[in-house]
What we know:
Helices cover 17% and strands 27% of the residues. With 218 residues, the chain is α/β, with parallel strands linked by helices. The protein has one domain (2-217): 4-Layer Sandwich (Metallo-beta-lactamase, Chain A). The strands form two sheets. It has a seven-stranded mixed sheet. Helix 1 links the parallel strand 3 and strand 4 (58-60). The radius of gyration is 16 Å and the shape is globular.
Amino acid sequence: MKLRIVYDNEAKEGLESDWGFSSLIEAEKRILFDTGASSEILSRNMLRLGIRKEDIEIIALSHEHWDHIGGLDAVLHQNVAVYVPGSFSKGTKRRIEEKAAAVIEVSGPADIVPGVHTTGELGMGIKEQSLVLETKESEGVVALTGCAHPGLENILNAAKFFGELYGAIGGFHGFDKLKRLEELKMIAPCHCTVRKAEIMRMYPGKAVRCGAGEIIEV
């Protein structure tokens, strides 16, 4: 399974960086996880990466903050299904329903397509779903997070519902129990990870660079 970072605070040459996150999962179906903050930047990055919105079959949104759903207008179309936490506002759900084939509300852990699952809606304050990706060699599962507002530890524990934990990719927010990452074989801190530089230094053999244009094999 291939994960392509489309939108991030950092970017490879030729792509635009901006505060926000979006990644494309190439599994049985093409799944876009989050949409960044800007439709314009998302559209330009997609164009440079050769991604057409019509090729995106599923969109999964982690949470309702602007830097994760701001680019929605660039990718909504009549054949796409959109997975959202049940706590999303009626206004946002209605906005999606007007342009998408279906809105699927997420509550508990569930399968999306073979090899890709949702943790379900987690958190007491800011509610958020993360995705769980099965590795191609059946080495375990990788948690893909938006901002990890429910706490990275809680998300990793939820991901274990689907198998042995292999890695974590995405925004880790203020997570600071960095020793907890020792059990992982792959770590890709993105977007809002406050201690990103420290994680990269602590785990040189496991840490993977994140940024728009990067490709991560799962």
